[in-house]
Amino acid sequence: MGIDTMIKSTSKLGAMVLLASLFSFNLVLHAAEETKTAKIVSLTNPAQTYGVQVGDKLSRKLVLEIPAPLKISEGAFPKKGSKNNGVELVEVEVQTAQQKDLTRYTVSLGYQTFTSPNKPTVMQLPAEKLVLSGGTKVQMLEVPAWNFWFSPIVTGGIETAQNNIQPEAAPPLVEVSAHKSRLALFVGMLAASLLALLYLNADGNWLPFMGGAFAKAHRQLKSLAKSSGAKTAVEEKQALVYIHQAFNHHFGANMFARDIEPFVTKRTTFKKMKAEIAQFFDASNQSLYAVEPRDSQKVIADLVQLSKQLRDCERGV
Q1: How far apart, in Å, are the Cα atoms of 279 and each of 219, 222, 251, 274?
Q2: CA 311, CA 172: separation in Å to the nearest integer?
Q3: According to the model, what pLDDT value does residue 294 have?
């Protein structure tokens, strides 16, 4: 046999060995994939298998572990709204947790019963089949059905229910006298508070003891201050006269600066304003005897504020 023939034979043999090795590796790989199987880790059904009535909600929970590359497509899960023998699937919630070599699915299913048998009946939450994708062959996880006793609210038909209708019980009466007393007290306190606010802040003469001399002077000064045009010395003197007339009314005679101490002794509510009263009489003397022009606008505005403070003293605030 020649050298060329030997080389060709050796090459063919090597190729055959390589193909056999690849085929064997492929078989091992497929076998490894097939050993990876999905499983139901836990299945939690309702705790009670009896006493279920129309409209009751029953919940079950599945925990699945699906190894890669297998997975469950979204369309493989049970459809919300599907009905099976008087049991409707009303809730479907799926949570996934991706781990290193598998996916964990947590599936929460909520069922509700809608049927009206005449006697206790065995019903069931239906079996579910979950088809897996991603493998070399179709795999499926089967969730078994769960049986329970369904109890009718009334044994018999509509005639039985009509014959056993009970009259509605009248609701118990609620004692409201205490609430009425509290309401009356609250209304009284609210009215007193509103009257107090009106008495303290109103400029009008709507309530007794609101029409004092300084309250009147305050209204006159506010009207004077709001009048249009620049204020003159004549208007300034008129504003001072309003305050003097109020002092004379409370003092019972013409009051001068020397009478401040007897005045606050006689009218103790004005004692806290003693310094402001002395300042007023000093400013009044300057206005009467001053030669240089003064800012009458500011003087009148200051007298408005002073009259309000004196009115508050007059009202005992």
Answers
A1: 21, 20, 18, 9
A2: 57
A3: 76
What is the C-alpha to C-alpha distance for residues 11 and 57, in angstroms, rounded to an integer?
Answer: 73
Q: Confirm if 125 and 145 have CB atoms less than 8 A apart.
A: yes
Neighbours of 141 (CB within 10 A): 19
Q: Where are the beta strands (DSSP E) in the chain?
A: 39-44, 57-67, 71-72, 83-84, 87-98, 102-113, 121-125, 128-133, 139-143, 146-150
- The reported pTM is 0.41
Residue spans of alpha helices (H) in 36-92 = none
- 3-class SS of residue 271: helix
The answer to whether 250 and 265 have CB atoms below 8 angstroms apart is no
Residue (of 189, 303, 169, 159) closest to 241 by Cα position: 303
Rounded to whole angstroms, how far apart are CA atoms 133 and 128? 16
Question: Which pLDDT value is given to residue 93?
Answer: 92
List of residues 6+ apart from 49 with CB closer than 8 A: 147, 148, 149
Asked if 105 and 62 count as a contact pair (C-beta separation under 8 A), the reply is yes
Candidates 288, 239, 276, 278; CA nearest to 256 is 278
Per-residue pLDDT at 290: 67
- pLDDT class for 33, splitting at 50, 70, 90? very low
Of 301, 305, 300, 271, nearest to 287 by C-alpha is 300
- Under a CB-based contact definition with an 8 Å cutoff, are residues 112 and 58 in contact? yes
- pLDDT tens digits, one per residue of 148-161: 988 887 666 667 66
13, two tokens: 């043999």
